[in-house]
Amino acid sequence: MKARGMLMWLAFMLAGTVLAPAADFQAGVASVKITPPLPFWLSGYAARTNPAPAVRTDLYAKALALKDSDGGRVVIVTTDLIGLPGSLSDAVAARLGRLYGLERRQILFNSSHTHSGPAVWPNLQVMFNFDSAEVERVRRYAMDLTENLVAVAAAALARLEPARLFFGRGEADFAVNRRQPSPTGVRLGVNTNGPVDHTVPVLKVETGDGLLRAVLFGYACHNTTLGGDSYVVDGDYAGAAQRAVEKAHPGVTAMFMILCGGDQNPNPRGLTNHVEQHGLKLAAAVERCLGGPMQELTPPLRSSWVMTKLDFAPHTREQFVREAEEKNVYKQRRAALMLEAYDAGKPVRQLAYPVQVLRMGRGLTLLGLGGEVVVDYSLRARREFSSENLVVSGYCNDVSCYIPSARVLREGGYEPVDSMIYYGLPGSFAESVEEIVFNAIKQALETTR
Question: Which residues pair with 373 in a beta bridge?
């Protein structure tokens, strides 16, 4: 009887082992505070006249490391920042490559694009008239940020443990197209008839025994609830949403990725009450998704990286000589950069542009595009690649400027034309911009199939 009882116990344990869901992945998550030292200049609005003297909410960089049963790996790093210059992202990726053998295609960086975060040098330097001491201060922050991003990714990789991944989509409706037609052309405003993308993709990360560990979610909307009259450090609606999710699930790390929100604004906007309102609405969409049926993801993890080049519309040295004489100080600064390039024999004719794909089996394909990508790209990509469960994110790896669609380029306005002054670039892209990007997207997707 004793032996029989032992055999019955062993059979029960084996049956339980067979019935228990397998953890096909390992996951690790980490977070580090990246709030700048005060006072510090904020980035995103040229109208600001002094640095921020106060912090309303802290800013964070967070990392999610994933590994499959065959050793495939990816690392996703999110930041509460206006954007990362490619030089900084690449420096972090190179360090992680040397330390952990990761390739560039396996590391994706995304910035929430809060306009209440610190200047990240040399991004948007035309906005500022820094003296040498202030330049050194923002350079120091960028150097410290580099160390913090390496550290947070390393911490996530060190914490890998069995995990299960699930994916679903929710919806939030506070984003509105901001390209408003007027008798004098397109201006920044509220266009309720313009294209939008209200979907909220959600990636749920559970431990092997079913405990919630991390939530990665996204939304296609500028992180600009607070305007240029705000002088406090803040994560804006994206920060508020992350805090709300983490409050609802103590011990869980919530991560936000901004999607193709280049021509989308939160509505209404301007007040801290609006920040919390939109953050809670986004968090509620995440919670509804977490509480409903979600698709479990399976290996393998695959990734690809394509660098392409976007052509600028033709320009001449003479036009920047004339621009240097204009009263607009931002045009003067842009002209100085362009004339310096001309005089060095290297006029700016093209922009190096990264396209990245992270594929999680057949259940989820994350497409990461550089720059401030307008919503047309997401809508077209999901339409053309309808067999993919596709999430399209802008603001990845290198936030170098706006990336207009052919439609937006033809219409003109802030995104395709005026914004290029602040980014220190020569002007609008050539008409080929959308097709060049989509050719790179197709190549990146094919590489991971």
Answer: 403
